[in-house]
Amino acid sequence: MTRKTIFISTGEVSGDLQGAMLIDALKRQGLAAGLELEIVALGGDRMAKAGATLLGDTTSIGSVGLLESLPFVLPTLQIQRRAKHYLQQHSPDLVVLIDYMGPNLSIGSFVRRQFPQVPIAYYIAPQEWVWSLSPRNTARIVEMTDRLLAIFPEEARYFEKKGASVGWVGHPLVDRMQSSPSREEARKALGIEPEQIAIALFPASRRQELKYMMPIVFEAAKQLQEQLGKGEWKNNASIPNSQFPIPNSQTSLFWIPLSLEAYRRPIEAAIERYGLRATLVTGKTQEVLAAADLAITKSGTVNLELALLDVPQVVFYRVSALTYWIGRNFLKFSIPFMSPPNLVVMRSIVPELLQEQATPENIVQEALELLFNSDRRRQTLADYQEMRQLIGEVGVCDRAACEILQLLQLGRHS
């Protein structure tokens, strides 16, 4: 059996998840092809459990925004130096970059200079195809990458037009959702009664989000809890009928999956401070997703998971006021959409509240609509069905793994 080494670089909680799923598929496809694969990586616990040897944990050093990234510059540089030193001593046979644009542009450029013979695959490209902040970033991605494996149709079209060798494999969450519990199984596992309202809250997977976003979502949850408890939503003219009973005041209304253990104490303190009937859940994120009647969530991969589970959602995001002002006035920052479901179909199918629009009052209004307006819920589910048809068939990770192993066996100059 031929032995090969693959280096994978990614960051943040979502990158760790995607990396772990890819490692499972690489091991599976490698075994079928007679390859013994050694995986070394920058990532997190999920990738380590999948069989990677971690050179650094990058799950807690991610950020969005200019000022927000400053505290993570030094830790990122330290991990980068460690990884580059390792690679100089142990040249890999292939490199896979997953999202994580700034650090991965640095890693990819280093590999291309030091090891010109080593092929580089970019799986899940940075969303330059959405932001388009710097043509230079797009050019660097295209120049350093031998094969770009896209997960969104629009992503594939964008990079193909820019000259990249592109393969569209579909979105890996299609595979992950195959193991999701049913609503009934999830509710049983969490102890939620069939008719009980359950609202999932996803306030933070990055440290900055504890500061800029958790207060917004928890204040919205507090207002929602008060209105639901008093039945005040019945007086809202835009909500013509009720699908749910008034929630029992003795049970949890909100369910919050813990993305990182480091966030436990601030989230528990906030639950108490806002007086929320909430349960913080560890290790059962899939159950919380599947059990929910509604989710109030930051923008991110979880939006697509919720859509695949037919859970209506309110999506919001905030950065510091200064970062937003600089982005809008100097960088001319503009995006069509920020959540993956809307990016797949390139139109608004889930409500998005960005920056000034991300207020507790706006979140509550959208939440009540999605909970109690049956017409709005039906339209959301129909839109989810349209989205589902555009993100590929089951087998995404295996298709990506096969492309990567083909690149590994052919090499750069074949």
Brief digest:
The chain has 414 residues and is an alpha/beta fold.
Helix content: 40-55%
What is the highest CATH level, the class of the largest domain? Alpha Beta
Sequence stretches where pLDDT stays below 50 over 5 or more residues: none
CATH homology superfamily name of the largest domain: Glycogen Phosphorylase B
How many DSSP-defined strands? 13
**How many separate domains?**
2
- Compute the gyration radius: what is it? 22 Å
At CATH level 2, the architecture of the largest domain is 3-Layer(aba) Sandwich
Taken as a percent bin, the fraction of beta residues is 15-25%
| Biggest sheet character | 7 strands, parallel
Distance between the ends: 22 Å
Commentary on this structure:
The protein has helices at residues 12-32, 45-50, 73-89, 101-114, 128-131, 135-144, 153-161, 173-176, 183-190, 207-212, 214-230, 264-274, 285-291, 301-308, 321-329, 340-345, 360-372, 374-388, 396-410, and strands at 2-9, 35-43, 53-57, 94-98, 120-123, 147-150, 166-168, 199-202, 254-257, 278-281, 294-298, 313-317, 352-354. By secondary structure, it is an alpha/beta fold. The chain has 2 domains: 2-170 and 393-410, Rossmann fold, CATH 3.40.50; 179-388, Rossmann fold (3-Layer(aba) Sandwich). The strands form 2 sheets. The protein has a 7-stranded parallel β-sheet, with helices on both faces. A 6-stranded parallel β-sheet has the order 10-9-8-11-12-13, with helices on both faces. Helix 3 packs parallel to helix 4, helix 4 (101-114) crosses helix 6 and helix 11 (214-230) packs across helix 17. The mean pLDDT is 88.
